[in-house]
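Posted in: Structural Biology > Protein-Ligand Complexes

Title: Requesting predicted complex, coenzyme A in pocket

I'd be grateful if someone could produce the 3D structure tokens for the following input. Sequence and ligand are given below.
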Amino acid sequence: MNELQVVGGQTEYTDRNGRAVFLRSAHLSDGEAIWRWRQDMNLDFMRATSSPTLEEHMAWMAAALKSPDRRLYILEETVVTIEGAPCRKSLGHLRLDVVGDGVGSVSSLLAPEARGRGLGVTALMSIEKPARDAGLRILIAEIHVGNSAALRASVAAGYTETDRIGDFAQIVRELYPQAIVSTENPEHPT
Ligand SMILES: CC(C)(COP(=O)(O)OP(=O)(O)OC[C@H]1O[C@@H](n2cnc3c(N)ncnc32)[C@H](O)[C@@H]1OP(=O)(O)O)[C@@H](O)C(=O)NCCC(=O)NCCS
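-- Reply #1 --
Done. Output follows.
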């Protein structure tokens, strides 16, 4: 069963495979990794017709981090180093843009090595808590019709296709209030 906990300001999410992942705000220092993951994405699936240089991407990211309507996140898991010490490993990036009253636009990008492990669904579900906290009631996304993994992951995460514009499916997820177990204030779960 899925479970959400807020621990030390980070959202910990146990996905349908019993795997714990963490969602944290992105920093500028995550910018290069995000740019590299993006290089490994099928350009046909993007709205943009060209790939930004690292410098262009970093300038975009610096501006995005300052924007009140844009939130950037990093999804992480705990791995154990060769020395046996636990450490966090980045799995991917999520972007949440406020695009209207109560409406957010979501986009997800997993690191190439994290793809195909069922984490696409986990990533989309993990964004729901911060989206609700931001007062959003509806999440939308645009997915290229050829992007089978993204389409299947979004259906599994509860999104439905409402429209199709050109080669892009418009998908929507309605957010309902959800009980959150907060370890920071267990007396008063939100
Ligand atoms: C799209 C993305 C988030 C999906 O996450 P993922 O972890 O790779 O996908 P999952 O392992 O969760 O698989 C989701 C479904 O797609 C299927 N799938 C996975 N890879 C696939 C592929 N290459 N082709 C077709 N189906 C695929 C899985 O079998 C699964 O189907 P099921 O739920 O019916 O079993 C990830 O691949 C990614 O970041 N891609 C690059 C960026 C991108 O395309 N983002 C989406 C645009 S917003």
